[in-house]
């Protein structure tokens, strides 16, 4: 596999002005014709921000009052996955590759170089669940993927010195997701890598960690031997166009503000959390909106919503509606039966407090 390291360090002035620009880089490397081979880049936030997945409901996943009062930016990526809090103590890595039919959704494949580097410095990192990297049972990295045409991107965050208190206050994951992890809060689930760095690596910096990963991926002892492309002003102008056309649009970032009477969520192993906000009148579903942190960001969720609206609020009818909505294609390997049970069982009900 031919791979190119793309140095984005000259673009932090753009990212500082428009935090959403960082969420456009993967789209640019997927869609711009000058990048035909695999690409690896790294990104460190200039300022704190919360990044939500393409299909998430910010009104249930994020404490909007907290982030607004603390000057924390809110952005939405094109990829799926869950909400994350990032700041200057976080290092993000991202691969963009051509889809040959083998590694799309194979998170472990793209996390493996990071895991091997961490093992080499004494951190007992491992992949757990569908897309988390953990140490001692606590998460320090979440991953996401985005596919456009015959190319896709896959990468993740690496929490080195992130403000964990801010992360805990800013994020409000559904109770079904926390329950699936056997935890009560974000704080009890996540950790920084810093406490696990020993000896010569105690004071490891993000730059040093990035360099170690780069050398490992390229099997090189010198950065000078790594094929590198430095972003040009034209590149950044093109990325800004992507940001201005979609990713900076408040309607895209905030999503729908309509809240229906019921909100049920359920965590499905290997898929993620699926949430449906809906209303029922006279035994018929009148409104439905599908959310979630599942990584299939390109699914047609409106097909599911349209199938639900007008369906009787009974198990057999809901199962048929989910079948018509083709949930296997549009969300992932979840059964219509399980989704129907989710809507009918109050154990999956989330409080509509926002």
TrEMBL record:
InterPro entries referenced in this protein's UniProt entry, alphabetically: aa-tRNA-synth_II/BPL/LPL, BPL_LPL_catalytic, Lipoate_protein_ligase_C, LipoylTrfase_LipoateP_Ligase
The keyword Ligase is assigned to this record: yes
GO cellular component, one term: cytoplasm
Residue ranges of every copy of the BPL/LPL catalytic domain listed in the record: 33-225
Species assigned in the record: Lentilactobacillus parabuchneri DSM 5707 = NBRC 107865
Pathway(s) where this gene product acts: Protein modification; protein lipoylation via exogenous pathway; protein N(6)-(lipoyl)lysine from lipoate: step 1/2; Protein modification; protein lipoylation via exogenous pathway; protein N(6)-(lipoyl)lysine from lipoate: step 2/2
PROSITE patterns linked to this entry: BPL_LPL_CATALYTIC
MF GO annotations: ATP binding; lipoate-protein ligase activity; lipoyltransferase activity
Highest taxon above the source species: Bacteria
EC number: 6.3.1.20
Keyword annotations from UniProtKB, A to Z: ATP-binding, Ligase, Nucleotide-binding, Transferase
Catalysis performed (reactions): L-lysyl-[lipoyl-carrier protein] + (R)-lipoate + ATP = N(6)-[(R)-lipoyl]-L-lysyl-[lipoyl-carrier protein] + AMP + diphosphate + H(+)
Protein name as it appears in the record: lipoate--protein ligase
GO biological process, one term: protein lipoylation
Keyword Iron on entry: no
